[in-house]
UniProtKB/TrEMBL annotation:
Belongs to the DNA2/NAM7 helicase family. CDD domains: DEXXQc_SMUBP2. The lineage of its organism: Eukaryota, Viridiplantae, Streptophyta, Embryophyta, Tracheophyta. Residues 525-725 form the Helicase ATP-binding domain. It catalyses: ATP + H2O = ADP + phosphate + H(+). Coiled coil: none annotated. SUPFAM superfamilies: P-loop containing nucleoside triphosphate hydrolases. Keywords: ATP-binding, Helicase, Hydrolase, Nucleotide-binding. This is Helicase ATP-binding domain-containing protein. Residues 68-78 have a biased composition (Gly residues). Residues 67-117 are annotated as: Disordered.
């Protein structure tokens, strides 16, 4: 008989097993979640997949085996015993288990790999002996409907599982919740927090607690399915944790159960994009009638196109994410290498070449020392690093705002510790230092371990950011779920971009596809904009037009045109959300809008916002508004601390002062939240990156009247849906003939991830959504004519002001 190994760990299983682990392996949920493939993780999976209890066999094909998880009589992993099933005698509805009526000798005979006949006979005897018991079980469990393993959806209740199974899960989750609260009280919560996560991580962490509770007799199969249904486990855990924390508060062991680290962690998990994607309701969105004049059948067809699109994009994002992680890991694993012409006696080497020539710019710096720390904008920890000795920083691609990984390095310069993520704050003017803003680790000064050690800083490509991936996936989910719902403010945009030509004929029938100069009377200064720019401004201000695509070739004044559209829309009372795929593009728009007199707010990580526009950032505006309040807060806190030092011997008085300090801190946080909400609510224009628009601070705001996405040709389509779904109409500006989205995976590129929404929308409905800026003001016509012919079908013209312009005519050329 042919041997077969465990599908998870490669060990040879020891007893006849079923297809549950095979189902887990094939589960799309499992494949979509990132988790370590280390032996410890595989062991955890085997522990919760294989149990010593018997359960039904389903869909098990010939020679497909999984281990039984080390039952008491099975021999566990690593045993040389094994079994196979054949297609001739399927047992898809049978319960196979150890039978107390069969002698020990018979049980031993079933474990011999060469005696397949004896094995079959004994299995048949088992079936006969359990026949009556089976019929009783089927009658009891016939009404139970357990969803597929890891299927998304609502938690399973008593109607799905039955009272005894629900009790079993509750007991296990109660033990897990008690362990959580105990770990926090004992000061061991940080380690527990690092192990916890949504989805599969949570399921694996829950298994030991469920294993400690005896499974109700006769319900092994249904318990085994329920114990891997994440929404069910999370729902019970949340309920039990709340009960445990409330009991601790009643016993005066915690002051406010809602402010405990345990409860905060649970809320973090519940608010994560991964949790929402897994635990969402499975009810399909209801198509609405009358979307842009469509009937129900057309709405259903449109929903079908949305479903197909989101499914395809989600898969492509996963493929691209894998490629990004692989590429990033290769970069982080690189080690410094000596150049052939370098001095071998040189004590340190600062560059990691990543396959580049030694003299080229590099995105890794080694052998740095942490010399000081301070607090920067937004409470980030700023750590100043300096090159060892009297050396200077090497030529590098690192610049302010870049995402970096900071690690202690070994003697070879390779990373020797886990990555601390941060952002480059600035490069020192002395050429020897670099300042990095490191993310806080929940009060744990992890960065303090960097002092006195040799440190390595690596640039992390922004696309490898996990938050960006999660927000893109979440946008696709919201598009699929709410795209054609009446409550969706962008329903007209969705219908336009996923409809047929006949679905947008109303644009032409109502003269919304063109414009007339009368629409701009009194709005523009004479001679400021050419005809193509005026057309784009007029179409962009038309509130009845859900989508407009503006193609702006080089030098055609696209940014100036967008500035005018945004300013005029805000003056007409519209609230505008402006985004772009990169921080540099957003800051460029902020700089252009700064002199318009509009109330604009730049939202984003302070470390990644240009210093030239920092005064318009949310953090700076809030800090300036709270300056007096914080000064008063610091004065009161200082007075209370002085009083506390004089009252340390009086426990009751000291406890009262500590409570006042705590209340004072809460008052400051409350004031900060109120000020942030006030600043954003009063803003006429809010600016952020595409993914930054998913920030809860922006999402909690009222619906925007207009969404403007600049450089949309450089953004992948899923990222554009993040801001679009928050507005009533949108303008896509950019040039699909210039820079395209950066895609690492060839498979994802060929699958369509490299096609931007700008490019797709420009060709929709015979181009009725698009307009092009046709006059360039940057280059000599000899240069522009080639670009016009090769890239723009000869439609790009040169302004007479620059058509014959030569470099020698420029005032700065001597």
């Amino acid at each position: 008989m042919e041997k077969a190994s465990c599908l998870f760990c490669g060990n040879i299983p020891s007893t006849t097993t079923k297809a549950l682990a095979l189902t887990v392996r094939k589960s799309s949920f499992l494949s979509s979640l990132p988790f370590s493939s280390s032996p410890s993780s595989l062991k955890s999976i085997c522990l919760f997949v294989g149990r010593r209890y018997s359960f039904p066999s389903t869909k098990l094909q010939s020679k497909q085996l999984v281990c039984n998880g080390g039952g008491e009589s099975s021999g566990g992993h690593g045993s040389s015993k094994f079994a196979t099933t054949t297609k001739k005698k399927p047992r898809s509805k049978s319960y196979i288990g150890s039978n107390p009526k069969i002698s020990k000798s018979e049980n031993k005979s079933t474990s011999k790999p060469n005696d397949s006949v004896t094995r079959t006979n004994i299995l048949v005897e088992e079936l006969g002996l359990f026949k009556k018991q089976k019929e009783q079980k089927v009658q009891k469990t016939k009404a139970l409907n357990v969803r597929t393993l890891y299927q998304n959806g609502d938690p399973l209740g008593r109607r799905d599982l039955g009272k005894r199974v629900v009790w079993w899960i509750s007991e296990g989750m109660k033990a897990m919740a008690s362990d959580f609260a105990s770990a926090e009280l004992q000061g061991e919560f940080l380690e527990l927090r690092q192990r916890m996560g949504p989805g599969l991580t949570f399921v694996i962490q829950a298994q030991p607690y469920l294993n400690s509770v005896p499974i109700p007799l006769g319900l092994e199969a249904i318990c085994l399915k329920a114990c891997t249904h994440y929404p069910t486990l999370f729902d019970h855990f949340q309920r039990e944790l709340r009960n445990v924390l409330q009991e601790l508060q009643q016993n005066s062991m915690v002051q406010d159960w809602k402010e405990t680290e345990s409860w905060k962690l649970l809320k973090e998990l519940a608010n994560s994009a991964q949790h929402r994607a897994i635990a969402r309701k499975v009810t399909p969105p209801k198509p609405v009638q009358g979307v842009l004049g469509m009937d129900l059948e057309k709405a259903k067809a449109m929903q079908g196109r949305i479903d197909e699109f989101t499914k395809q994009m989600s898969e492509l994002l996963r493929i691209e994410r894998d490629a990004e992680l692989e590429f990033t890991q290769e970069e982080l694993d690189a080690v410094p290498t000596l150049d052939e012409g370098s001095d071998s006696s040189k004590p340190i080497e600062f560059l990691v070449s990543h396959g580049q020539a030694q003299q080229e710019l590099c995105d890794t710096i080694c052998n740095l020392n942490a010399v000081s720390t301070s607090t920067g904008l937004g409470g980030m920890h700023l750590v100043l690093f300096r090159v060892e000795g009297n050396h200077r920083l090497p030529p590098t691609t690192l610049s302010p705002g870049d995402m970096v990984c900071v690690r202690i390095s070994d003697s070879r310069g390779a990373g020797a510790t886990s990555c601390i993520q941060g952002f480059v704050d600035n490069l020192g003017d002395d050429g020897c230092s670099i300042s990095v803003a490191l993310e806080s680790r929940h009060g744990d000064p992890t960065f303090s371990k960097l002092f006195g050690k040799s440190v390595r800083i690596d640039r992390i490509h922004g696309l490898a950011d996990a938050l960006t991936y999660e927000r893109n996936c979440e946008a696709l989910m919201l598009l699929q779920k709410n795209g054609l719902q009446k409550k969706n403010p962008s329903i007209a945009v969705v219908a336009t971009l996923f409809g047929d030509k006949e679905d947008v004929e109303w644009l032409e029938e109502n003269d919304l596809a063109d414009w007339s100069p009368a629409e701009l009377d009194g709005l523009l200064q004479n001679g400021t904009f050419d005809d193509s720019q005026q057309r784009a401004i007029a179409l962009g201000l038309n509130k009845k037009r859900p989508v407009m695509v503006v193609q702006g070739p080089p030098g055609t004044g696209k940014t100036g045109m967008l500035k005018e559209v945004i300013a005029l829309a805000a003056q007409q009372g519209e609230r505008v959300l402006v985004t772009a795929p990169t921080n540099a593009a957003v800051d460029n728009l902020v700089e252009k809008l700064s002199n318009t007199g509009l109330n604009i707010v730049r939202v984003g990580n302070p470390a990644r916002i240009s210093s030239a526009v920092a005064s318009k950032s949310l953090v700076e505006i809030v800090n300036s508004k709270l300056a007096d309040y914080r000064a008063e807060f610091e004065r009161k806190k200082s007075d209370l601390r002085k009083d506390l030092r004089h009252c340390l011997k009086d426990d009751s008085l000291a406890a009262g002062i500590r409570q006042l300090l705590k209340q004072l801190g809460k008052a400051l946080k409350k004031k900060e939240k109120e000020t942030v909400r006030e600043v954003l609510s009063n803003a006429q224009v809010v600016l952020s990156t595409n993914t930054g628009a998913a920030d809860p601070l922006i999402r909690r705001l009222d619906t925007f009247d207009l969404v403007v996405i600049d450089e949309a040709g450089q953004a992948i389509e899923p990222s554009c849906w993040i801001p679009i779904l928050q507005g009533k109409r949108c303008i896509l500006a950019g040039d699909q003939c210039q820079l395209a989205p950066v895609i690492l995976s060839r498979k994802a590129l060929e699958g369509g991830l490299g096609v931007s929404l700008l490019e797709r929308a420009a060709t929709l409905h015979e181009g009725v959504l698009a307009t092009m800026l046709a006059t360039q003001y940057r280059m000599n016509d000899a240069i522009a004519s080639w670009a016009s012919k090769e890239m723009y079908d000869g439609e790009l013209k040169s302004s007479p002001l620059v058509a014959s312009h030569l470099l020698v005519d420029s005032p700065f050329v001597k």
